[in-house]
UniProtKB/TrEMBL annotation, chain A:
Keywords: ATP-binding, Ligase, Nucleotide-binding, Protein biosynthesis. Residues 24-473 form the Amidase domain. The lineage of its organism: Bacteria, Bacillati, Actinomycetota, Actinomycetes, Pseudonocardiales. Belongs to the amidase family. GatA subfamily. It catalyses: L-glutamyl-tRNA(Gln) + L-glutamine + ATP + H2O = L-glutaminyl-tRNA(Gln) + L-glutamate + ADP + phosphate + H(+). GO terms for cellular component: glutamyl-tRNA(Gln) amidotransferase complex. SUPFAM superfamilies: Amidase signature (AS) enzymes (SSF75304). It comes from Umezawaea endophytica. This is Glutamyl-tRNA(Gln) amidotransferase subunit A. The keyword Calcium does not apply. GO terms for molecular function: ATP binding; glutaminyl-tRNA synthase (glutamine-hydrolyzing) activity. Heterotrimer of A, B and C subunits. One of its GO terms (biological process) is translation. The keyword Amino-acid biosynthesis does not apply. Its EC number is 6.3.5.7.
UniProtKB/TrEMBL annotation, chain B:
Allows the formation of correctly charged Asn-tRNA(Asn) or Gln-tRNA(Gln) through the transamidation of misacylated Asp-tRNA(Asn) or Glu-tRNA(Gln) in organisms which lack either or both of asparaginyl-tRNA or glutaminyl-tRNA synthetases. The reaction takes place in the presence of glutamine and ATP through an activated phospho-Asp-tRNA(Asn) or phospho-Glu-tRNA(Gln). The gene is gatC. It holds the Pfam family GatC. It is an enzyme of class 6 (ligase). It comes from Umezawaea tangerina. This is Aspartyl/glutamyl-tRNA(Asn/Gln) amidotransferase subunit C.
Amino acid sequence: MSLIRSTAAELAAKIHGGEVSAVEVAQAHLDRISSVDKGINAFLHVDTEGALAAAKQVDDDVAAGRPVASPLAGVPLALKDVLVAEGMPTTCGSKILEGWHSPYDATVTRRLREAGVVILGKTNMDEFAMGSSTENSAYGPTHNPWDLDRIPGGSGGGSSAALAAFEAPLAIGTDTGGSIRQPGAVTGTVGVKPTYGSVSRYGLVAFSSSLDQAGPCARTVLDAALLHEVIAGYDDRDSTSINAPVPPVVAAAREGASGDLSGVRVGVVTQFSGEGYQPGVLASFEAAVEQLRQLGAEVVQVSCPSFDYALPAYYLIAPSEASSNLARFDAMRYGLRVGDDGSHGAEEVMSLTREAGFGAEVKRRIMIGTYALSSGYYDAYYGSAQKVRTLISRDFDAAFATVDVLVSPTTPTTAFKIGERSGDPMAMYKADLCTIPSNLAGNAAMNVPSGLSADDGLPVGLQIMAPPLQDHRMYRVAAAYEVARDAAQGGPLIQRVPQLEGI
Amino acid sequence: MPSISRDEVAHLARLARLAVTDDELDLFAGQLDVILQSVSAVGDIATADIPPTSHAVPLTNVFREDVVRPSLGQAKTLAGAPAAEDGRFRVPRILGEEA
């Protein structure tokens, strides 16, 4: 197996065993990025020098016989451009932050560095994480490695595409309404939204603070678990950080890989099927559920009626929080400034800058949020959305009283064509139909690939949801399913991505 | 069903400090109307007896030790500023905007 096609766990074993150097591994991935990223556009910035220096540090430890910094020391990673990192630009996919360098590291970034993980660069995303296709990036769309005319999901399409194009074995995403899981589904990769509060938001440029959560992205369940344990944990710099032990997700992934799910109760969410769901997606989902049954799981149907209102509640809560969070882009302390020619006052400069620096989707959401929070409309919109949030949590509580995990398709369709939904915001929003409830309730949820759709040969994702701080439950189920899927489908799905050489 | 006029969108843009163009107003007015009609469905099930949830994990009174930590310092803080002068942020005039 070539270095770029290896899993993170395999690479770590080879590096720590002295079989291959971390510098060679980093260089192989940098070379891959040079040869294919022109056609993918997964990376907004590649930090060649920083990556090689971080890799050399790990090689020095190995050569000196010192213990390596973590089980992932020396493994390369692609960082979503919404997490700040010193020495690299942070743009959030926006013109308003073009060329801006953070003066400090996000906690996630710091934890990665301390673990000896080699950060290759920053990945493309929908502007300020608002979108489901990465088409809202000010730096051009990212292309899906399975079909370059199609979207890689969003907002973390750069991270998912980097994994599927074998440009990196690990990536970090952030998930506010599905931005880790939906890109995972449409690229055939694994993506996890941990329990809200388990990964620090310090240094994560805020979109919707009560929903934003960073998480691991990888090509296998075990790799995601290994990365999860590197980035998760209490942080006193995030007042919503949970002060509790990180769930044992690596042990759960290893246990699951033994392929036995006896005694596990799996609930199928009845709301997530029917109209609007692509037949090939539903067929793949049903086959996955059957596989879980064969692994020994007991499968029951579970109704969560308020989930039908999750999408409207989300598109009030997220824009409301965004309109407040993005007020910080005022052209005064950092970022773009337009019209500062002596003839315009501060407010005019602010308005001209925000007009020039923000894209259409960001402006739409700021205005929706401004509307939903304005007096006279607050109760009908924002207030009602917060009540729906309560109902969704109650549905989850009732479901988890009878089942260990819930499952659904991750997103209703396979990857759509670039441009297909960009003029129709509501059609775009529906990509997040199945992922949003777990953001509103704060519980853990993940995508694991379930195969290719019979309609169009594109990847389909299985979503597994677990109660808050029970992240390990879904890792166990996902790992067991992954083994069974590979056995049934004749090998890992990801190895079937079309060759990209020479694009 | 609510609906939102072009003038209301222009008002929102002013409140949000967005100097939108006339073309954008035409586009956004239609789109915001569709989006707001769709999301108003939350009113269907949000009855008076349901308490609101503002946060997935309710935490109150989160404190940490009051320990002095080094701050970024002037040079690093100003490094990303659009304009700086005499070791400070330089900003456009803020008075004379009553219009």
